[in-house]
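Repro:
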Amino acid sequence: MTEHIQPLNGYYRDHHGIIVNVIDYDAAGQRVIYRRDGYEWEYAAPLIVFRARFKRMEK
């Protein structure tokens, strides 16, 4: 199952202005896995929802 997870390291801003760090993409489940600063656990969102609510931050 983990062979479908691609490690990533990118920063995005959500629709509330909160910055998150995208750490993985689950190709089989079409989920984006990310972390919020100050939280110890990871979040996951379906790709279609993530694209609608998050914008990539410029470097």
